[in-house]
């Protein structure tokens, strides 16, 4: 009930604004910022009407001032939805580099090759080991790392090898370092 009233009030205000513009439009000067905000408000009204009628709205605007920010569904335990930029970064010797940043959701798991290439380009040294979240442990990334002889922190698939205890120790150390350095960098 309240939501419907708010939508109707916004519609009424826009109608009144349009009437004033029709009557005094030639003598009024609108800044570019005002016109942009008005356009965003009109888009928000359309989206709110669609959501009120039960339609799912993609690219939902959550802020008039920061209209480029979209809700990103994360599926985390504490927060199902987050707002702001999603960042994929790499860390080399304690220094973090942003590999990719977007205000829209993206899947980090497909960016491992780009991260490795970026590190090699920055350091001019071939990457020998990678510590990454389990989301990066897809088949394409596993094949890439195997092909180029890169050790990873990924949990091994299939039957255990003869040197599995050594691999497990390496995996554990890589994962521990990744958690301490990378996640500590953001305070998470």
TL;DR?
The protein is α+β, with helices and mostly antiparallel strands. It contains 5 helices and 6 strands, in the order H-H-E-E-E-E-H-E-H-E-H. The protein has helices at 2-24, 32-52, 112-123, 139-147, 164-186, and strands spanning 71-73, 81-83, 86-92, 95-102, 129-130, 151-152.
Structure description:
The protein has 188 residues and is of the alpha+beta class. The protein has two domains: 2-52, no CATH class; 71-186, no CATH class. It has five helices and six strands. It has helices at residues 2-24, 32-52, 112-123, 139-147, 164-186; strands at residues 71-73, 81-83, 86-92, 95-102, 129-130, 151-152. The protein has a two-stranded antiparallel sheet with strand order 1-2. Strands 3-4 form a two-stranded antiparallel ribbon. Strands 5-6 form a two-stranded parallel ribbon. The longest helix has 23 residues, at 2-24. The model has no long low-confidence stretch (mean pLDDT 83). This is Transposase.
